[in-house]
Prior knowledge:
Layout: H1 9-27, H2 33-51, H3 56-63, H4 71-78, E1 80-84, E2 97-104, E3 107-114, H5 120-125, H6 133-149, E4 153-159, H7 166-170, H8 173-185, E5 191-200, H9 201-208, E6 212-216, E7 220-222, H10 226-233, H11 240-247, H12 251-256, E8 262-264, H13 275-293, H14 298-310
Parallel strand pairs: 3-4, 4-5, 5-6, 5-7, 6-8
Antiparallel strand pairs: 1-2, 2-3
Helix pairs in contact: 1-2, 3-11, 4-13, 6-8, 8-9, 10-11
Amino acid sequence: MISYLDFEKPVASLEERIAELRTVDADDKVDVSAEIARLEGKSAELLASTYASLTPWQKTQVARHPARPHFRDFVAHAFEDFVPLGGDRTYGDDLAIMGGFARLNGRRVVLIGHEKGHDTQSRIQHNFGMGKPEGYRKAIRLMELAGRFGLPVVTLVDTSGAFPGIEAEERGQAEAIARSTEACLSLPVPMVAAIVGEGGSGGAVALASAERVLMFEHAVYSVISPEGCASILWRTADKAPEAAEAMKVTAQHLKRLKVIDRIVKEPVGGAHRDPEAASKTLGKALSEELGALSRKSSAELIRMREERFLQLGG
């Protein structure tokens, strides 16, 4: 079952009609295959045209779609031989941020990313992808391992932001995020980050301070959520669509502003309609970027990151 967003209602109506006709075709002797084919074509055209002109707020809704692929899906479809590593060796393990060793098209990498969960129980278990200090310290530990063993780092960013609870603040949330960002910038090995859903605030930057940043075409990346921005500026979250437009949260805006380096295409209708295809497309793009970076020296990689972040928005 596909969960339709508000702006997809015309598509939903067509696909419901197609499903009804398929039932008729299976039960009766009436041949409705031609009508099914016609409606399928119309539905495909409508879906493509709808997704070709999404507003920033609509893209935000797509980025948050409950069926959008998360870390576990990318591991299953784009990587091989994943060996998870847990714990920050200081406090505990944070399941909102996962990582370990993996292979990407035969290349050994250290893989780190946010996991939001796929149902109520797993979303609670993974804290909806909102990392705590121990999660970012785990990421730092994995990056240090990558540097020690000469393995490139791949990060998959998908979080509304770092966990804002008082216990996270007590354990040094801001310091952990800053240290994780510092660890990214000082890595002696190639690093490629991908914004695959939401890229929210410092919780995203802490895993995305790479020399190459990729972004799915319907993902969003910003310093604050549109609702949070609207609440500050207009004292109401109802202005979130206007805030999303003003904040330039989309991949297309951010590519022009040089905040990201490459836009990765999604299947028509969003990555949630075909997580496996989306994962494989992303894996191919990541592999290409790592191949280009593998010829750079440690000094060149560090300089690339420094120059990239000093020129943001230029």
